[in-house]
Amino acid sequence: MSGKDRIEIFPSRMAQTIMKARLKGAQTGRNLLKKKSDALTLRFRQILKKIIETKMLMGEVMREAAFSLAEAKFTAGDFSTTVIQNVNKAQWNYWWNWLPCRLPLLLWMKPLR
């Protein structure tokens, strides 16, 4: 530890009281930061778990959708032009996240709280 890292202080009872108060404040601040870090880590893991579950569900849904599309094409032939002509507007809804960006969200999805 070099000399410039040390706090110059006159040894007295008042200086001891001041240093104890500074130490207590530093310990409280560190504990608050640790709690905040733990809460953010927990939230990150919850979001990560939700992402993994959603990806697994998406795989199943895409498999069913591909099978349904193949079945519909086999039954009705090429119907892509009919679908394109009957669409009026996109089915997207935008909601604000706590980040400074807009995230696209399908109307049937619920925001993560």
TrEMBL record:
Compartments, as annotated in UniProt: Cytoplasmic vesicle, Clathrin-coated vesicle membrane
Transport as UniProt keyword: yes
Keyword match Cytoplasm: no
Ranges annotated as spanning the membrane: none
Membrane topology term: Peripheral membrane protein
Gene Ontology MF, one: proton-transporting ATPase activity, rotational mechanism
InterPro entries named in the record: V_ATPase_D
One Pfam family this sequence matches: ATP-synt_D
UniProt keywords, alphabetically: Ion transport, Transport
GO cellular component term of the entry, any: clathrin-coated vesicle membrane
UniProt similarity note: Belongs to the V-ATPase D subunit family.
Function per UniProt: Subunit of the V1 complex of vacuolar(H+)-ATPase (V-ATPase), a multisubunit enzyme composed of a peripheral complex (V1) that hydrolyzes ATP and a membrane integral complex (V0) that translocates protons. V-ATPase is responsible for acidifying and maintaining the pH of intracellular compartments and in some cell types, is targeted to the plasma membrane, where it is responsible for acidifying the extracellular environment. May play a role in cilium biogenesis through regulation of the transport and the localization of proteins to the cilium.
Subunit structure: V-ATPase is a heteromultimeric enzyme made up of two complexes: the ATP-hydrolytic V1 complex and the proton translocation V0 complex. The V1 complex consists of three catalytic AB heterodimers that form a heterohexamer, three peripheral stalks each consisting of EG heterodimers, one central rotor including subunits D and F, and the regulatory subunits C and H. The proton translocation complex V0 consists of the proton transport subunit a, a ring of proteolipid subunits c9c'', rotary subunit d, subunits e and f, and the accessory subunits ATP6AP1/Ac45 and ATP6AP2/PRR. Interacts with SNX10.
UniProt-recorded name of the protein: V-type proton ATPase subunit D
